[in-house]
Amino acid sequence: MTRLILIILALAGWSCVISPSSNSGTEARHIPLVPSGASDSVRTDWGPIFDAYHGTGTIVLLDTETGTRHVFNPSRAAQRYSPASTFKVYNSLVALETGAVPTVDTMYTWDGIERGNAWDQDHSLSMGVRNSTVWLFQDIADRIGKDRYEETFALEPYGNSLIGPSVRTFWLGEPLAISANEQIALLNRLRIGDLAFRPDVQSHVREIMMLEEEPEYTLYGKTGWTWTEDDRSDEIGWIVGWIDRGDASWVFALNVEPDGPEFNMRSARRRILNDVLGAMGLWLPSDQE
């Protein structure tokens, strides 16, 4: 059996348990991905952007004003992959909703394992999202427990909503999986506060997702990166979120894998996103990674 290797990385510089609140709603809701009558725009012209960074993948960009989804590689956009650290968005919602984490600033003691990175310190939820701190979210997952996850997935599904035998690893490679299309639907509803979580919980998570705030735009997002094979043949990376520009917003979900030895996951995700947004006239600084 192939030994499971789990690596989760994110942009650098980028625990009492209760049931979900009755204020959140009592039934699972299935909201259409885009407004009725909206259509997809297949963007084959974005292929050279992926090629330029030696990656194979998909990106979905939802224009929330028109409801049009601009999609490169539609078949891949419908395929589910491990969410890796992008699950920290949903996991933060569950943690705050259930009370497993009282506030985004509540501090938790470092587990003492030296990893030589930003994980080697006490963390709050806010810090854990920014640093993609696996030990923190594994601690939080233990506090939430499988029953609470299952209850929450019943109210607000996430991809295939599979947990498997361990609450400490189910989003780290397998069995949880989600498509770029499903990421778009979830994030758009988080953006407008329409998920099955309390409004204040959604507001707090939006705040800790903020990556950049400039006069021209505000960018929200989360990255993810994982593989399970020794040879990294199933390596997958994500960047998901949305950009607000004035009164207009665009929600994005990108996943990508290497297509050659020159591929650099750490930089390619953001650069592909920047170039796609630039092609749409939604400028972002080109030197951001």
Structural description of this entry:
- A 7-stranded mixed beta sheet has the order 1-3-2-9-8-7-6, with helices on both faces.
- The chain is 30% helix and 19% strand.
- By secondary structure, the chain is an alpha+beta fold.
- Helix 3 packs across helix 5.
- The protein has 9 helices and 9 strands.
Keyphrases for this structure?
disordered N terminus; alpha+beta; 9 helices; 7-stranded mixed β-sheet; about 290 residues; globular; two-stranded antiparallel ribbon
Would you tell me the overall average pLDDT?
A: 87
Radius of gyration: 18 Å
Query: Looking at the chains present, what oligomeric state does this protein adopt?
Result: single chain
Determine the N-to-C terminus distance.
36 Å
In the predicted model, the low-confidence regions spanning at least 5 consecutive residues are 1-37
Number of helices: 9
What structural class should be given to the helix and strand makeup?
alpha+beta
Q: Count every beta strand, where a strand is a DSSP E run of 2 or more residues.
A: 9
- β-strand amount: 15-25%
Order of helices and strands: EHEEHEHHHHEHHEEEEH
Largest sheet: 7 strands, mixed
Morphology:
globular
Helix content: 25-40%
Going across the biggest sheet, name each strand in turn.
Answer: 1-3-2-9-8-7-6
Write the layout of secondary structure elements.
Blueprint: E1 40-42, H1 47-52, E2 55-63, E3 69-72, H2 74-77, E4 80-81, H3 87-98, H4 125-131, H5 134-144, H6 146-155, E5 178-179, H7 180-192, H8 199-208, E6 210-213, E7 218-226, E8 236-245, E9 248-258, H9 265-279
Parallel strand pairs: 1-3
Antiparallel strand pairs: 2-3, 2-9, 4-5, 6-7, 7-8, 8-9
